[in-house]
Specification:
The chain is built from ten helices and 18 strands. By secondary structure, the chain is an alpha/beta fold. Helix 4 packs parallel to helix 5.
């Protein structure tokens, strides 16, 4: 083949010759911010976001404060102003409607995934707009992943926490929350190595200081776990977002993940297509969580994380359940499962008794076959 022809083929932009549907499908696997950068490549890519069927965005962490030496000492350097995250998400959703008139309509929305750093009460309206837009332009199988606050799942030192993997002292204090009783600290053993080198008076002062530290640790340990979502004990409680009522009657909703959201479901719930449900830090009372689960007849994958209001969990109506994960639901006492299809079960929390789990098959004399089972707790 002629070298000139080879060079011409190498300079040819084959990717831009693909159809809008193909390009939009490719960009849907990227974060929406990354996909938006493709619109600056050329005029051919200007309206390509209109062909994207998945909107996935995560709010970045705030900038680290920087200080500069000013006229009166160190001064805080203000970062460059940026658009609010809610404005960016709204613009990404409505960019799917920005298409020239002769072109075809935008494809249905398959997934909406948004993770916010923190939620304020004034942001309720734009978040409602996102969910409403997703339901209005939903594909036959819709995924909604909405986490409005970035907080750790649990502060307690379990084996899957980084603090618990180290020494006992590191496991006792996790993110500033102490979980050690005063009687569990042996002051004499702690300062035996210093007795040979220090005076008696100095060692007594150190012991007195250690007792004060233990008292402070015990006071922190007595704090209720419900305050773990915020590092501050002062000020008003954080705002809680309540999802729109229409979400609980969305016939195309296949996967739902909510973090730090209030459910407040209506009297009638209809989720005929829901197969995966993931709830994290949901403050609703136990009845609301149970009703949402029971109203999902096709539910196959259920995950509950840090849902402290749930004490009794009944899955008798979920006969299609294949995977069950319970993480850090510390008030959960009993779980009843009647799921012949159950294959995987993971439980990470202190076990309150030997009969906390009741598993049975729906058929006569049949039992579910568990191919994966992990229980991390203390009997």
């Amino acid at each position: 083949m002629d070298h000139t022809l080879i060079a011409e083929l190498g300079r040819e932009d084959r990717l831009s010759r693909l159809g809008d549907g193909v390009l939009g499908h490719i960009l849907s696997f990227l974060d929406t911010k990354e996909a938006a950068r493709a619109t600056t490549l050329s005029s051919r890519w200007r309206d390509i976001l209109a062909s994207v069927h998945t909107v996935s965005m995560e709010e970045p962490e705030g900038p680290i404060p920087e200080y500069v030496i000013g006229e009166y000492g160190y001064e805080l350097c203000q970062p460059d102003p940026t658009l609010p995250f809610t404005v960016v998400v709204t613009a990404a959703l409505f960019a799917r409607s920005r298409r020239p008139a002769p072109a075809a309509a935008s494809p249905p929305l398959r997934a909406l995934r948004v993770a916010m750093e923190s939620y304020g009460g004034l942001e309720a309206f734009p978040v409602d707009q996102w969910v409403t837009y997703a339901m209005k332009h939903a594909a036959p199988e819709l995924e909604v992943d909405l986490r409005v606050r970035r907080v750790p799942i649990c502060h307690r030192p379990y084996t899957h926490h980084p603090a618990a993997a180290g020494s006992d002292e590191n496991a006792a204090v996790y993110r500033g929350k102490a979980h050690v009783a005063p009687e569990e600290v042996d002051d004499e053993d702690e300062f035996d190595d210093n007795d040979d080198n220090d005076d008696v008076d100095d060692s007594e002062d150190e012991v007195d200081d250690s007792e004060d530290e233990v008292d402070d640790a015990a006071e922190a340990a007595s704090t209720d776990d419900s305050s773990d979502e915020t590092d501050s004990y002062w000020g008003p409680p954080p705002a809680v977002y309540t999802v729109p009522i229409r979400l609980f009657s969305c016939a195309t909703l296949r996967s739902l993940r909510l973090g730090s959201c209030n459910l407040s479901p209506p009297a009638v719930i209809s989720l005929p297509s829901l197969e995966a449900l993931h709830l994290t830090h949901v403050p609703d009372e136990e009845e609301h969580v149970q009703r949402v689960i029971s109203a999902s007849p096709k539910l196959a994958d259920l995950t509950l994380e840090a849902c402290d209001t749930v004490k009794v969990l009944s899955l008798l109506d979920n006969r299609c359940l294949r995977r069950l994960i319970i993480l850090c639901c510390h008030n959960l006492a009993t779980i009843t499962v009647d799921a012949q299809e159950l294959q995987a079960f993971e439980y990470r929390v202190a076990v309150r008794g030997s009969s906390f789990l009741s598993v049975g098959g729906s058929g006569a004399g049949s039992k579910p076959v568990l191919t994966s089972m992990h229980i991390h707790g203390v009997l």
